[in-house]
Amino acid sequence: MPDLEMVEVVFEMESEAVFEARIYKKEPDVLALISAYDWDVNIAYAVLMAESGGSARAYNPEWHVGCQGSIGLFQIACLHEADPSLLFDGAYNVRRAYEIYQQLGWKPWGAYTDGRYLEYL
What we know:
Blueprint: E1 6-12, E2 18-24, H1 28-35, H2 41-52, E3 59-64, E4 67-71, E5 76-77, H3 90-104, H4 110-113
Antiparallel strand pairs: 1-2, 3-4, 4-5
């Protein structure tokens, strides 16, 4: 995992609102959340950082079958959740990510399949 450093992330929402955040890599709360589950914590952390920059408020408006958006720490596609607004809660997002991971491995995360997660290992 990378050393503690600050990164600035800007997310543009569909409504043209902009969310800016200063995020600290290796944030203890994020590590505590992902460490609660039986998966490789280093890979989970790397995927999370590559997907959202560590922001629970991250939102990608990309279209999925039947819904629009990938949300939260693990950028979970709205099609995986009946109430996508729940995915903005960090603890809930990590729990859903783990449930998806148990069924499908890391395949649903583009940051894993395209190798972007490797930057955070």
